[in-house]
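Sequence in, structure out.
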Amino acid sequence: MRLLEPTLDRIVCRRPRRGRRRQHLCADRGYLGAPAAQAICARGYVPHVRPRGEATRRRRGRRHPARRWVVERTHAWLNRFRKLLVRFEKHEISYDALLEVACALIVYRQVIVIHR
């Protein structure tokens, strides 16, 4: 919750203009409350805060599956890299470089699996 505003401010993907389509932001129960809703709305998002377990109750088609656990899955993939799990690097730039290499390897492995 404390890092919600800095995270939303550092999103680098292109978003639609405010006049055309509204951008939706899905979050879990940890972001339920007025301060989080105000931070989300102030940045032009429509908040969708869902309680725990709702994704299992609501069935969606194969075309649009629920994507609520993407962050947790990505953290689990990053935890496989032991060098990142416990930070031994003295300089931040070295750690950032290792993080980028790990992310590139994850993406590469996903592309290989998709194209098989």
